[in-house]
Specification:
Length: 421
């Protein structure tokens, strides 16, 4: 039941002393310590968002400044808005997340306020500087990041263009994992740190979600090669994004010589990117019942052999019917560029492509420093082309991601995967 809430979220640190956007490319010091941050809104009521680009986009308002297209991104550490001022400047604004009203509305208001963050601390982006996507990209007016979103459990139903803010997702992970068509992934939270070397002299809160992933690549003869990845989710990036050196572990023959595409991320534009595809990508719960971590690909193999915890084991996007035993699974992959191609592939029992952009290692360099030496090297971003296959929750209060197959016709559940090659 939706209920209005005034929330007090204790911020453990002052405002981020560095602009750590999606890939942590820019840094600067922020102005003041936030003793208490509040939000006002109705929890449990879904709101409509624009998902034409595959990303959750919504209008917003910062004080009296209208922001027509703002991305909601669990992968950005800070909130970045195109406002008047110098790029990177800190600002404190009353930030409202809005929902566009239907054409049938007769009260004259084009939007309705769904969430208010009074005195929210944000960063200024230069006018016209923010774009998302490949090639020319799509212009946006801002990104609302995990500094604000991490106060909630958030439900994303991208296929239907709905987002819901919740105070929690009811049920323990073990209970939810026993529900048909649900997969539960406990995540590690990293990032942040002490900034005593800066003039701010305070801690940066950790907001970076780390998940275990296994990607598979098949050569022309169908020979399989798999590699483990440590991934972070993003709802402002559509494809999977992987660093060059890490992708070479999956495809040793890969050469970056012809990589000349541009990919626009919340942190800025990345040149020298390559668009390619892989046969399959899986998120894996990399801990068996005994608590032993075995590596995502090995855990996936144990599950297919009946030795793991099958209901919690994996969520897979298949781009090749032979990968990960995908011939026994439904159409778990990103939308193809052609609807007719998608229909013909479905009839043939295969799936659309699993798109990967391979980017220079420098793109991940600052982010790896942020997550710290104690964490596995972060080398991939999993975007909405994967997550749109499901209704999914990013449950910050319980440190878990939940994927739900129940309302998605392309998604199928198996208690145990077929044997892997």
């Amino acid at each position: 039941m939706p209920h209005p809430v005034r929330g007090d979220a204790r911020v453990r640190t002052p405002l981020l002393s560095r602009v750590l956007s999606l890939l942590g490319l820019a840094t600067l010091c922020l102005p003041r310590c936030a003793e208490q941050q509040t939000f006002l809104g109705v929890l449990g009521r879904s709101m409509g968002v624009d998902t034409e680009t595959g990303l959750p986009i919504t209008p917003a308002r910062a004080d009296e400044h209208e922001l027509g297209r703002v991305a909601l991104d669990v992968g950005s550490a800070v909130t970045l808005l195109e406002l008047a001022g110098e790029a990177g400047d800190p600002r404190t604004v009353d930030l409202r997340i809005l929902e566009e009203r239907s054409a049938a509305s007769t009260d004259g208001d084009a939007t309705i306020v769904r969430m208010l963050f009074p005195a929210a601390d944000v960063r200024v982006a230069a006018q016209g500087s923010l774009r998302l996507g490949a090639g020319d990209g799509v212009p946006i007016d801002g990104v609302i990041g995990a500094d604000l979103l991490s106060r909630f459990a958030i439900s994303f139903d991208l296929a239907r263009g709905r987002v819901t803010f919740l105070d929690e997702v009811p049920g323990t992970s073990s209970t939810l994992a026993q529900t048909d068509l649900l997969a539960v992934f406990a995540y590690r939270i990293r990032g942040g740190g002490n900034t005593s070397g800066s003039s701010c002299g305070e801690n940066i809160p950790a907001t970076r979600i780390l998940l275990d992933a296994c990607f598979e690549d098949l050569d022309a003869d169908g020979a399989s090669r798999k590699a483990d990845f440590t991934a972070t989710p993003s709802t402002a990036v559509a494809p999977i994004v992987v660093s060059r050196s890490s992708f070479a572990r999956l495809r040793p023959s890969f050469t970056p010589a012809a990589c000349n595409e541009t990919l626009h991320l919340p942190s800025g534009s990345v040149g020298g990117a390559c668009r390619t595809t892989v046969s399959a990508a899986a998120l894996v719960s990399d801990t068996d019942a005994s608590g032993v971590e075995r590596g995502p690909c090995r855990s996936l193999a144990r599950t297919s052999a009946g030795a793991g915890a099958p209901r919690e084991a994996a969520a897979i996007a298949c781009g090749d019917a032979r990968a990960f035993g995908c011939e026994a699974l439904a159409d778990l992959a990103a939308e193809s560029e052609s609807e007719s191609e998608s229909e013909s592939e479905a009839e043939a029992g295969t799936s659309p492509e699993v798109v990967v952009y391979v980017v220079p290692d420098e793109v991940f360099a600052t982010l790896r420093i942020e997550v710290g030496a104690g964490a596995a090297a972060l080398d991939a971003i999993v975007g909405t082309q994967f997550f749109a296959l499901f209704r999914f929750w990013v449950d910050y209060p319980s440190s878990r991601v939940i994927l739900d197959c129940r309302s998605e016709p392309r998604c199928a559940h198996r208690e145990r995967l077929p044997p892997l090659q």
